[in-house]
Amino acid sequence: MIGVDTNEIIGLEKKYEMNLYPKRGIALARGEGEFVWDTEGKKYIDCTTGVGVAILGHAHPSVIAAIERQSKALMTCYQPFCHEERARLEQRLVSLFGVNGKVMLSNSGTEAVEAALKLARRHTKRKGFVSAMNAFHGRSSGSLALTFKEKYRSPFEPLIGPIARVRFNDAESLKGAVNSDTAAVFLEPVQGEGGIRPASQEYLKAARDICTDRGALLIMDEVQSGCGRTGKFFAFEHFGVQPDIACLAKGLGGGMPIGATIARDEVATFGPMEHGSTFGGNPLACAAANAVLGTIEKDRLLEKVASDGEYLSHRLKAALSSKSEFREVRGMGLMVAIELKVPSKEPLASLVQNGVLALPAGEQVIRLLPPFIISRASLDTVVQAIAGVVK
Ligand SMILES: Cc1ncc(COP(=O)(O)O)c(C=O)c1O
To answer: Is 192's C-beta closer than 6 angstroms to any atom of ligand 1?
Structure first.
C-alpha cells in the first residue's frame, strides 16, 4: 500500500501490544478470495484464514453486502427487543444441529464454551468436567480449565474444577473418568490446536453411551471443526453421534466475531438473565452469519470442501512421501495437518517467503485451513510450495 510504512506498523505493535502473539514479520493490507496482500504489495495464498475464520475467503460479496446493508439499518439491538437476522440465524442453527434445541449467541469460541460450561452445571446440578489430552477449548478462565496444555493453565490457577483429563480416542480412559459428579464431557470431534486429530467413530459412539448411562452431557466443541470445515456442517455428523450441546464460532460470521452455543431443548434450562452478553446476537454479526450459511448452501460448499479435502490430502501425500522430514498427512475436509519429523517453524517461515501463509498446530505440524472457495490451481500451488520447503 502506497504511503504505508511496514516497519512502522510492526514497530508500533511491538511497542504497544501485549507480548502475546509471536509475530511473523509482515503486515497485511487487504484480501480477496483465497489471497491476501501485505503492505509491500506481496501476494499470498491464505491457508490460515485468521485460524479458520474467513471460510468464504476474503471480501466475499455476500458477506460484504450483508454487512453493508445491516450496518446502515441497525447495528445493535438489546436482546429483549427481537430482530429478524438474529431470529433467522437461531432457527437455521437449530435446524443444522439436528434435534429441537435453543441457541445462545456470543462473540467468540471461548464464550461459546463458557456458556456450555455454565449450562452443563445449571442443568445437571453437578460440578465436574472431563476433557481430553491435547484438547484446546479456549483461554478464558472456564474454557482454560478444560484446555490441556499446562503451560497455558498453570500461571492462572486455581481454575474451575474438578477436571478429569482422559486420553483422546480411548473409551476405557473415558469410562474410568465419568462419574456421578460429572456435569459434561467436552470433546473436539477433530482436535484442532492439538494437531488435527480426528476422533474415531467407536470413540465418539462410546462417549455418547457413557454420558447417557451416567447422566452427564456430551458437548462437542466445534469452534474449529464446525461450519463445514470438515465437509459436513458439524463434524459430529460424520460419526452419527448427536451431542447434547455444540459450540461454534470462528467461521460462522465469515470474519465477523460471533459464537453460538446450541443445546437440545431438554438441556437448554437457563432462566432469565442467568447468562448474557452485550454484543451476543447483534444484528451485524447475525447478518454476516446468515450470509455465510446461505452461501454455503447455495454454492454447495460442503460437497466442495469434502472433495477438495481429498484432493489436497492426496496431492500432499504424493508430493511429500519421499521426503526424509515428512511423517504423515491427516485431517478431514479442509482441516489438514502435515506432520514432520522436525519442527515446523522454519518451513512455515519459508512458506511465507514463497507466498503461502500456513499455521502450526504443535511443534512439528504445518496446519492448513484454507477458505472453502479456494481453487484447485491454488491448492496445487500450496502443495508445490510445501514440497519445496520440506526436505
Ligand atoms: C476447538 C476450539 N475451541 C475454542 C477455541 C477458542 O476460540 P476463541 O479464540 O474464538 O476464543 C478455539 C480457538 O482456536 C478452538 O480451536
So the answer is: yes
